[in-house]
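User: Sequence in, structure out. Go.
Assistant: Echoing your sequence, followed by the structure tokens.
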Amino acid sequence: MADVITQIYGIKNLEDALMCAELGADHIGIAFGEVKHLGPEQKSCAQAKAIFDQLPDSVVKVGLTIACDIDEILNDLSLFTPDVYHLSGDIRDISPENVQKIRDAYPGLKIMQALPVYAGIPYEEQWPEIEELIRKYEPVTDFFLIDTKEPTSTIGIGATGAVHDRNIDRAIVEATKVKCIIAGGLDASNVAEAIHITHPYGVDSCTRTNLDKGQTDSIGNGKDPEKVKAFIEAARNA
């Protein structure tokens, strides 16, 4: 099987970013922006830049936002522009036309669009809407990040730790030429199986490579180096 890239999210400090880079993560992701949509654990533009500037050039720096206001997004990008900008807010709140405005303003910036998949809802019920979203957003997207969305959540897509039906991921991968990174409850125990089912461009882990509760500080800092190492090795060996 072709090499699958690994993406580690939920980075909140330089030490964890350097550790993930040392362990071989291909993409490293940080939530950032001047408006604190995600609370104190979200980094400002300057804080994200300070962390990313210390990473090797070989690492792809991914900045996540759940903002959907185009003026807010363009302001954030004027303060710091990562390699990849991950749009992880409610997909219905940012039109393809506005995504194109981002691309026009920052031609060298790659866009990663989160695609929501719901756990516990049959494939047949979800697929028509998912396919419609693929067709609408693939012209303005470099990557799709396929992640689990809580049905009642109003703050974005992902970071739930919940697993969804990987057959939906496979259908998305097969339906588009856009590079697909799969997420949603992935860790060392299940990432190889997920890769074999879906044949993605990449795999992403956030929640399940964090330190266990009680090992983190007041704003949840902390990636577990053993979990990160095991995840990356399992993906590489799949």
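User: And one key feature?
Assistant: The chain has a mean pLDDT of 90.
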